[in-house]
User: What shape does this take?
Amino acid sequence: SLYSGLIVDKGGTLNAQGKEEQPIVFTSFKDDEYGVHIPFYQEDKCAGFWSYILIREMNDDILFSNVIIKNGGLPIFSSDKSALKIGASQGTYSLEKITFKDNKSPLFIENVENFVIKNNIFSNNEEPIYLYNFFGEISNNQFKDNGDFIIEVTSRSGITIKDNFSNKPGLIHYISPTKGCSTLKNEITGLTYWGRNENLNYLISGGLFVYNDFEIEKGNVIKSRNVESSCNNSFGAIFVLDDKELGKGKLIAQGTKEEPIVFTSFKDDEYGGDSNNDGSTTSPQPGDWAGISFY
Assistant: This one.
């Protein structure tokens, strides 16, 4: 194979438990920071690249802590560039004490319940964490010198996000599918809590459909934007809905005079700073996003 990585298939086991002073390191062949320098033939242009650690399904025999994952994310079969991919889980699992450093994207997780991402370090990764059908918690993580988009959530979800820290402004991004007119929507179907995070604001691209309790902590800034799509979920909006199958939505947004909750345009630099990084080139206008609707 031209690309390299580690695949843990369904039913497989992985025991990678390092120590704080002796972490286990997964990195590139070209990385001289860890291990010893190994000469390689320069005509071998693929030497030193690696793709990912793929865990097709979490189980109780996969133990992962005090690990460094570095220089990963070369795609194999798709455009996804995540250094660690987790395919599914049916129990309660967590990722803790892992350092993701210098990757294309640090992490991709799909189809999980009761999953916790906590007390990790994400440093100098180019693309966000990608979450698809994710239910769980993201808390107390440190983000340093990453791209503008820190976390990207799509499809169904129910997530508590709180107490994360970034050393520079970044976005937690909820985005509806935009390619074609997919039947997929960005739907909150589990209990959801958007807490405060240092230097991180929330961005909604397209429609966000709410079918469960959705609580927003005081002081948060939620920016929205319309996206280019022929689909009816392309307008930047929150829809609070009542559905027999998916559930009854509820929006809980109680700010204070001193710490209001702000819903505004992606182009609005007054609240949450210059999120679209264009200086004064653009300014917020009526209709930049659709609004909040209750049905």
